[in-house]
Amino acid sequence: MLSVDHLSLSIAGNLILDDVSFSLPGGQTLCVAGESGSGKSSLLKALNGLMPARFEQLVFNPKTGFAVTHAGHWQGRPGLKGSRWVMQDPIAALNPKLTLGASIAESIFSKNLSEANLENAVSTVLSDVDLPSEMTTRKPSEVSLGQAQRACLARALIASPDLVFFDEPLSALDAIVQKQIAKTMKQIQERYGITFVIVTHDLGFAAAFADQMLVLRDGKVEAYQVANSFFAEPASRYCRDLIEAARDLGSLPQAPLSSGRPAEVYS
Amino acid sequence: MTVAEKLVLPEEPSLEKKMRERDFNRFLLNLGIGLLVLGTLVAAGFSFTPYAPNAADFLNRLSPPSAEHWFGTDQLGRDVATRILYGGVWSIGLAFLITSIGAVVGTIVGLAAGHFGRAADTTLMRVTDSFFAFPELIAAVTIAGVLGPSTTNMVMALILVGWMRFARLVRGLSVDLAHRDFVTQARLNGLPSWLILSRHILPNVGPSLLVLWTNSWSRTILSISGLSFLGFGVQPPNAEWGAMLLDGKAYMQTAPHLMIFPGLAILVTVLSINLTGDRLRDLIGGEALSD
């Protein structure tokens, strides 16, 4: 579904990402973890064509999206077909002058739907993300952070994407709202079988979602493992420290679980 | 999921936002009342004045303010009050026109510079900088010197030197906006340039633009009066406040009302527009980008 081979990215002589590879089957979730500055967000930007990355192979959903199978330079036209991106700060990601409804509808601008069809599509996704329909007329300054992030989810979802990127989707939110949004994300993924790539530094959140874990450290891949084995037997000392730290903070349960996902904390 | 779901509060707009809205509505109300009163006075002036602005009355030259001539008469016996009324159309109306054209041109240049890549940006902003190098008075005097003094030439000169501040403002704001997350989202969602500009950039530049426009308007009124006073602007016998000052200068000792009343008209107009602009800036300017 999404496979990346030997992707690297350097900006002004600084190597931001060095030889990152992964291969993610459809409908699954890859969580990208690491400290700040490790290149997590740059990976998303590179994959979305906002930064000129070098790669040997880059394949995504031959059906609708990009399928680049040769080595080369990827600074694709921004706006990959079949994928959407949910950003960290929902208020910054929404135009303050547009209503939520207008922002959501804009996501499928290229489909040229009629007014009525557009309204239908918007109200469908609004119920998918548990937002009341009167939210379409609100401006971002008139809703809570959680509602704004739901609107961003709706904006991604309305395009019926095969792949959704998330950049720290919860870290701007309160604990309670985090929990609710995570639940909604899970419902959406189960209902539509969307592939998720989630950048997060919250290992508890990652544990609840990930099928695969990718840990970056200084732009290099520190670990790339199936989630269960990552939490049971992390590949490196550094990953063990990360997991320990998350346990100490209480965002991961203390004892490693041998089977199943470590903890269904978000479900 | 029991406690958590019940805790979702219906979000009320913050207290601060409500207060801001109240202040803004009060400002609009005051502005509306002010404009209504002013409009009524001006309309009454135009319909009830028994004098024509350029009608000479040689029996009544340089007469001081009286019941017949509220602001007195000038050296040709023309009614100063009527001339101030008609002169306002030149001063305020021309300045309005010049500033609006400058705002449109500057906005287009600024948007283009901010949106269409580095080459466009560099070219357009260097052109803007070179226009900044001409002091507007000298530019106008030069144009008048080459083409001859006339109202049209003055308007052209002031448009030529008046658009750059708009270009700089719009360019700066749109470069900043271009890196905002919501504009990135719009690009990722495949919106064409014209929609990104019209839906995402321009509406967020608008409030700052309005503040600058108000400020430029009052400056332009001063420039028009200044140029007319120097003889490069509105030409006699047309009444314009600066031109009236020029006419009255010779009689400053014996008939000071010829200079006092046009001077007061300029003062009050520019002060009103400036104060309105300042209040507008306080209310919307500082947070032009964050709604």
Description:
The complex is a heterodimer of chains A (267) and B (291). Chain A is built from 8 helices and 12 strands. By secondary structure, chain A is α/β, with parallel strands linked by helices. Chain A folds into 2 domains: 1-82 and 162-267, 3-Layer(aba) Sandwich (Rossmann fold), CATH 3.40.50.300; 90-160, no CATH class. In chain A, strand 9, helix 5 and strand 10 (195-199) form a beta-alpha-beta unit. In chain A, helix 2 packs parallel to helix 4 (145-157) and helix 4 (145-157) packs parallel to helix 5 (175-192). Chain B has one domain: MetI-like fold. The longest helix of chain B has 38 residues, at 193-230. Chain B has helices spanning 3-6, 15-48, 80-115, 117-132, 136-147, 151-162, 164-178, 181-188, 193-230, 241-249, 257-284. Chain B is mostly helical and 291 residues long. Chain B contains 11 helices and no strands. Classes of the chains: A alpha/beta (267), B mainly alpha (291).
Brief sketch in words of this structure:
The complex is a heterodimer of chains A (267) and B (291). Chain A has helices at residues 40-47, 100-106, 115-128, 145-157, 175-192, 203-209, 227-232, 237-249; strands at 2-11, 14-24, 29-33, 53-55, 57-60, 67-68, 72-74, 83-86, 163-167, 195-199, 212-217, 220-226.
Q: Which structural category fits the helices and strands of chain A?
A: alpha/beta
Total count of domains of chain A: 2
How much beta of chain B, percentage-wise? under 5%
Q: What is the count of structural domains of chain B?
A: 1
List its salient traits.
heterodimer, A: alpha/beta, Rossmann fold, 6-stranded mixed sheet, 4-stranded antiparallel sheet, 8 helices, B: 291 residues, mainly alpha, 11 helices
Please describe the topology of this protein.
The complex is a heterodimer of chains A (267) and B (291).
Chain A: E1 2-11, E2 14-24, E3 29-33, H1 40-47, E4 53-55, E5 57-60, E6 67-68, E7 72-74, E8 83-86, H2 100-106, H3 115-128, H4 145-157, E9 163-167, H5 175-192, E10 195-199, H6 203-209, E11 212-217, E12 220-226, H7 227-232, H8 237-249
Parallel strand pairs in A: 3-10, 3-11, 8-9, 9-10
Antiparallel strand pairs in A: 1-2, 1-5, 4-7, 5-6, 11-12
Chain B: H1 3-6, H2 15-48, H3 80-115, H4 117-132, H5 136-147, H6 151-162, H7 164-178, H8 181-188, H9 193-230, H10 241-249, H11 257-284
